[in-house]
Amino acid sequence: MTLVARARTWLPVLPLIGILAMTYWLDQQAKPEAEASDRKLQHTPDAIVDQLQAVTLNLEGTPRFLMSAKQLVHYADDDSTELIEPNLTALASARPDVNMTALKGTLSSKGDVIELFDDVEIVRAASKSRGELSIKTDYVKVIPDAETAETTHMVTVEEDKNHLSAVGMELDNRAQTLKLLSRVKASNALSQN
Predict the structure, then answer these.
(1) Which helix (H) or strand (E) holds 67?
(2) C-alpha distances in angstroms, 169 versus 27, 45, 87, 148, 162?
(3) Under a CB-based contact definition with an 8 Å cutoff, are residues 78 and 44 in contact?
(4) Which of 45, 88, 111, 136 could share a disulfide with 100, CB 3.0–4.6 Å?
(5) What fold, for 40-192?
(6) Which helix (H) or strand (E) holds 9?
(7) CB-CB contact of 138 with 116 (8 Å)
(8) DSSP helix/strand/coil, 112
C-alpha cells in the first residue's frame, strides 16, 4: 500500500478529528475561569461583622445567653466562623452569671458549639453562699444550650483563698458543678502562712 493510498484511507476521518478538536476547545472556553475555582480553594471570608452583639432568649423572652466579639469572620468554603476577642455570658435568674472571655474563638456552623482559644478565662459571679470562681486555661469547648464548658488542657481555678490546678475540667452551669479530670493539685492561702 502506497502512501497516497494510506492518506486516502484516513481522509474521511480527518474532518471528525477536526470536529473533536473544535468541540474540546469550545468546552474549555465555556468552563468558568480558573480564578473562580481557585477562590473556592482559598479560605476567603464572605462576611465580616465588627463589634458583634448577640442575645439568645429563653422561652419566656428574657436573655439567657449573651455573645459579643470584636470581630466575627465567616468563611463560606467550609461554613466556619472565627471570633476575635469573644465574650460570652450565661444568664440564669436562679444562678450566678458565668462570663467567658478569650483572645480567639470559633463558632460551629449550626451555632451550637463555641470553642475559645488563648487566654481563656471563665468567671462565675459570687453568690450569697459562694465566692467568685475564676478558671483560666488556653482552650475550652462551650455548649451554650447544655450550659457546659469542657477542656482537656491545663486549668487553674481560684475561689476565695483556694487555688487548684488540674489537667482537664467539665463545668456544668445547670448543676452548678465543676469536675477536675486529672493531676489535681490544691493549695489554700491560709495553709501557706
Answers:
(1) strand 63-75
(2) 58, 33, 20, 10, 17
(3) no
(4) 88
(5) lipopolysaccharide transport protein A fold (2.60.450)
(6) helix 3-10
(7) no
(8) coil
Q: By the 8 A CB rule, do 98 and 127 touch?
A: no
Q: Cell 483572645, residue?
A: 103
List the domain boundaries for the chain: 3-31, 40-192
Amino acid (one-letter) located at 162: N
All three cell numbers of 120, joined, read: 481563656
What is the grid cell recorded at 127?
A: 453568690
